[in-house]
Each structure stands twice: as structure tokens, then as C-alpha cells.
Design brief:
Blueprint: H1 6-21, E1 28-35, E2 42-47, E3 52-59, H2 68-80, H3 82-91, H4 97-114
Parallel strand pairs: 1-3
Antiparallel strand pairs: 2-3
Length: about 120
């Protein structure tokens, strides 16, 4: 496990902001930091049923050209889409009623985030 850097601490704070902004407060998030190989800035593992998320930020030699907020939003959008992806995979079709319902829930959360509402 690596020591957090200013970038990784900013990333964690940004993840929590996006969690609230996207209305993902039903998820419990744990953060970790690991030494990176330069191929990615962060990674998300989640358990849809348990509503548990592990977000790992990676350390690197050079600061990324992308802001921690941008990377945080990207990772939190994985969580936003987690239920949708899980349901679509389980149902095997994008036209199943559960998949369509989840798609609309994602759209509404994005619209609320755009307006600055949870």
C-alpha cells in the first residue's frame, strides 16, 4: 500500500462530492492507494447486492494531466451504472422491463447532477 499524495487525497474528496451529487448515497465507499504502473489513475470494484465499493487510486511518478475531479467523476459514473450493467447482464437484453427502468433511473440521476441536485 502506498502513501496518499495530495492528488489522491483530492481524488478521494472529489469522489465523495460526486457520490452526493449523483445521488449514490446508498453505496458505502472505501478508498485505498496502491503503486501504479502508469496505465490507469484509479480502479473501482463493487458489489451491487451489498452496495459496497472499493476505489483504488494509483500513485505515479508524474502528476496526471487530468484533474482528480475528472477521474473521480469517471469512477463514480461506473458506480452510477453498476445496477444497470448488472441487470442488463442478468437479463441478457436491453429491452427487458428491469433494464429499461434502470436506464431511466440513470438518466434522471444524470439530469439531477447536471442541475446540481442529488
Amino acid at each position: 500500500m502506498s502513501k496518499p499524495t495530495t492528488w489522491t487525497r483530492d481524488f478521494e474528496r472529489a469522489c465523495l462530492v460526486w457520490q452526493a451529487r449523483l445521488g449514490l448515497t446508498d453505496w458505502t465507499i472505501r478508498f485505498g492507494v496502491e503503486k501504479g504502473d502508469g496505465t490507469k489513475w484509479a480502479h473501482v470494484d463493487y458489489d451491487v447486492d451489498a452496495r459496497q465499493v472499493q476505489i483504488t487510486a494509483y500513485t505515479f511518478r508524474e502528476l496526471p494531466r487530468v484533474s482528480p475531479d475528472r477521474i473521480a467523476m469517471h469512477e463514480m459514473l461506473h458506480i452510477l451504472l453498476a445496477d444497470y450493467v448488472s441487470i442488463a447482464a442478468n437479463r441478457g437484453t436491453d429491452t427487458h422491463a428491469d433494464v429499461v427502468r434502470e436506464e431511466h433511473r440513470v438518466i434522471e440521476r444524470l439530469l439531477n447532477a447536471w442541475r446540481g441536485k442529488p
